[in-house]
Amino acid sequence: MSTNGIKNRRPFILVCVLAALFAVTPLVSGQVSTTQTPVRSTNVQSIPNGSKLKFKGVVISQEGDTMTVRDRNRTDYHVAIDGRTSIKTNGGFLRSGKRYAASELLRGLIVEVEGKGDQQGRLLAEKIRFNESDMRAAITSDTRVTPVEENQQRMAGQMDELYAVAAEARQEVARVDERVTQLDEYDVGESVSVTFRTNSAVLSPTAKEQLDTLASKANEARGYVIEVAGHTDSTGSEAKNFRLSRQRADAVIQYLAVQHKIPLRRFVAPMGYGKTEAVAENTTAAGRAQNRRVEVKMMMNRGLTKQPTTTSTAARP
């Protein structure tokens, strides 16, 4: 991916995520504001084991064989229901009410509960009574409220997903920013130093073999440039040494470009340093031989060659 492509991708990601957030937020806010009411503090009353109790209240919730009933003082009781619990409407003709199953006791139903406390502090219901009109009202309320609550849950799930997408987008932008800042930073990947005879810019067979090895690695790499620097020993005038060092650098570039088809865009402008950067003493023949050299470095771009950080995220439905 080019630098321009990387930079253009960041605002696109952020705009998409923010647009989705703004689109969903008003819907969630509207649903919540129309259904929520201020909640006053309540307390749960524990019933001593074996103690009898009879009270009237409203079914708040039901989970399994236990439902929560709140009385007029806003005290909650956990009411347990089993197979012996009699659940009926208040008697009509001949005081015979209609029987109901425990699963039919809806939220909002006004009930009268009679029973004894169990070992868990619940009221083990022996009788549950209510009016048929209150059941109809509870059914109407549940029909209206349940879809709204389900919609709220769905919206909440969508918001959670959008927040997760936004978090992933921020992480991706951070990774892109990091890589963009490293586009002008390089590390040495491969390097070779080839030497020359006195007053010569002709590559020796040994030098060509060294360059062949470097070229084979360059052809398999990406995100690199090649830096070429020519040098001489102290023999000769300063002007001649600068000219000769540049000729040696040019000879290396020509060999890599012609023989190994390395594109010219991969090469940094060659530089001839003359005798200014000696690596050995020029007072000996061995030292001068080391100084008559061209240093070739394959520089790897940090921003383009750095492996992306992988993050594991839970799959969204």
Description:
This protein has six helices and eleven strands. By secondary structure, it is of the alpha/beta class. It starts with a helix and ends in a 12-residue tail after the last helix.
The profile of the biggest β sheet is: 5 strands, mixed, barrel
Low-confidence stretches: 23-41, 308-317
Q: How many helical elements?
A: 6
Distance between the termini: 30 Å
In terms of DSSP E residues, the strand content is 15-25%
CATH superfamily of the largest domain: OmpA-like domain
List its traits.
6 helices; 60s Ribosomal Protein L30, Chain: A; 4-stranded mixed β-sheet; disordered C terminus; OB fold (Dihydrolipoamide Acetyltransferase, E2P); 11 strands; 3 domains; 317 residues; single chain; 5-stranded mixed barrel; alpha/beta
Short description:
The chain has 317 residues and is an alpha/beta fold.
Q: What is the topology?
A:
Layout: H1 3-35, E1 43-45, E2 52-63, E3 66-71, E4 75-80, E5 86-89, E6 110-117, E7 123-130, H2 132-181, E8 186-195, H3 205-218, E9 224-230, H4 238-260, E10 271-272, H5 285-291, E11 293-301, H6 302-305
Parallel strand pairs: 1-4, 4-7, 5-7, 9-10
Antiparallel strand pairs: 2-3, 2-6, 3-4, 6-7, 8-11, 9-11
Helix pairs in contact: 1-2, 3-4
